[in-house]
Input
Amino acid sequence: MVAKVGDDPLIVAGQYGEGRSVAFASDCAPHWAPAAFVEWQGYAPLWRQLTAWASGK
Output
C-alpha cells in the first residue's frame, strides 16, 4: 500500500512472509504535518490502525 502526496510517497506499508512494516516519509513537526493534518479527526485512528496492522493485531 502506498499513500502519496503528489508523486511523493507519504506512507508505505508492506508485508513479506510473516513480517510487516510501515514507513512514514515525513515527521510529525508542524512544517511537515500541518495543523489541519494533526487536528484531522482521523489522525489518531490512522496511527492506531497502522500500529495494530504492523504488529499483527
